[in-house]
Amino acid sequence: MNESFGDDKKALSIITTGIDRNKNRIFLLNLYDGENLKQYKFPEDREEFEKDIKNLEVITYNGNSFDIPFLNANGISVKENFDLYSFLKSYKLLELKSHKFKDVYNYFTSKEASELEAKEVIKLIKAYEKKNDESALKKVLHQGERHIKNLYKLYEEVEKDLIKKELELEIYNKNIKMTPYSFKEEGDYFDIELLNMGEFINMNLEYDCFILFSKNSNYVLRFKTIKGYLDENTIGTCVITDLGLKDDNFPMLNKNLYPVAVENIKIDNVKRLAMAAIESVDKR
User: What angle do CA 100, 103, 105 make, to 5 degrees?
Assistant: First the structure.
């Protein structure tokens, strides 16, 4: 399994009095491992939280920009953070239209997150601190629980989605599992990044129309490209391939050309290209 998934990690989220870590403060911290929830009022439970977070690998949503900097501003460090937001932002083959938590949660679970807006939570914190409103505190705690459990559920659903899209090949007598994850057109090349979903091996294999190589514990398919008119009116980019792929929208293209960028990147074509290339490797 790719190191980002499948390890013993706990979801982490924080509730603050605002978004500015230099002016606002942490009110509540939440940790959840899929079964056990622990909540810490801050700064009252700081010592206990620091003990529990020590050497812990955590899952966050936009933690690189929010949760972790807030913790760092308070002198608390985290060993390793897997930011699910950043991961999904780079997951170009997913075609998400929005990366707001509630929209992503709905995309993967087909359910509403049903969470309070941040401004509502801040009002509840003020009500608790100014009026000692225990009912307001209870609602904040409930929001913390609801969000952290939703975050962990989302993490699980993303992992399931990746596994469902796995491509397998046997190479060097090893069973390699990978998932098409992202792509980049640069110069005369078109790269498809394949997320490593199993045992990792170093490789650099050259075939007639592409290269398959390892990079940063993942894999990359690299194709040569050619740009020009796909028909009388359409300019785009094609990869040069002998994989027998054809796009019916452009019947006049030479049989060794397959479009991957026409105005907007053709996501389905990129997926088909990756699958065809891996299948061809597995047959050799």
Answer: 105
C-alpha distance across the termini of the chain, in Å: 25
Q: What is the DSSP annotation of 243-257?
A: S----TT-TTS-TTE
Residue 1 has pLDDT above 70, yes or no: no
Sign of CA dihedral 238, 239, 242, 247: negative
Long-range contacts of 156-164 (CB under 8 A, 24+ apart): 156/34, 157/108, 157/109, 158/5, 158/84, 158/87, 158/88, 158/108, 159/5, 159/6, 161/108, 162/2, 162/5, 162/195, 162/197, 163/197
Question: Would you say the pTM of this structure is higher than 0.85?
Answer: yes
The neighbouring-strand residues paired with 179 are 195
Compute the distance between CA of residue 45 and CA of residue 26 in angstroms, rounded to an integer.
Answer: 11
The strand ranges marked E within 17-75 are 26-32, 37-41, 57-60
Instruction: Compute the mean pLDDT over every residue in the chain, rounded to the nearest whole number.
Output: 93
Which residue bears the tokens 């074509």?
Answer: 269
Q: Of 207, 281, 269, 206, nearest to 238 (Cα)?
A: 269
Question: Among residues 157, 178, 146, which one has the least CA distance to residue 96?
Answer: 157
